[in-house]
Amino acid sequence: MSIVITGANGQLGSLIINYLLQKVSADQIIACVRNTEKANVYVEQGIEVRFCDYDQPESLEQAFAGASKLLLISSSYPDDTIRMRQHAHVIEAAKKSKVEHLLYTSFAFLGIGTISPSHLHLATEHAILTTGIPHTFLRNALYTDFVGVLGLDAAIAAGELIIYPGNWKFNTVTRHDLALGIATVLSESGHTNKTYELTAPRSWNFEDLVMAISELTGTNVSLRQDPQIQNWIFGFLRKLILLQHQMIWKD
Fold this sequence. Notes:
single chain, alpha/beta, seven-stranded parallel sheet, two-stranded parallel sheet, 9 helices, elongated, disordered C terminus
């Protein structure tokens, strides 16, 4: 069995490989990367490294040759039109390379709402379905580390986390948990033509966040809402929360 991982130098890809090494031998893993010079750690571990660039279709078919399983880690490019084209390149190459099983890191809570990633991931899933290749969709919840853009260091120093007003509630997952789950699926049989919602068992809010920060740092951090705060993340989170609420009501 050959398990090919795209985006292997990325944060999620590298974590997946680390967990996968606990489940299969290194010679069963192929790390596909854009910069092979940054993948020496894989070579030292006995993992084959192949050049793979979503924007260079000619590199993909050879990179995927002999793949029993191919994990397409979604492109992180900011323009969804370009991301979809990149995904299409990978899917077409998977067909030509006769990949036996195509897995894709999609996005949780799909099918409703207007949030941009929803359209991209639904389109990619549909494109994969049209190939007839046995598939698995790994619908990842929002990364918990989005809190890094909230200015937590400044909040700890000031003893106050300032947020935009709203009834905030999130379902998030750490990259480590996602990587462990994905590595488990990659290493096992019985997951073809299935969709997994990789979400947390419970949601949390900003009150939970400041409580956790206070406990971890020993500094009392309070929460204050301010409609004047300027941070792009709150616009994105508002759309995501609406999407999650719609999914709850749909179910």
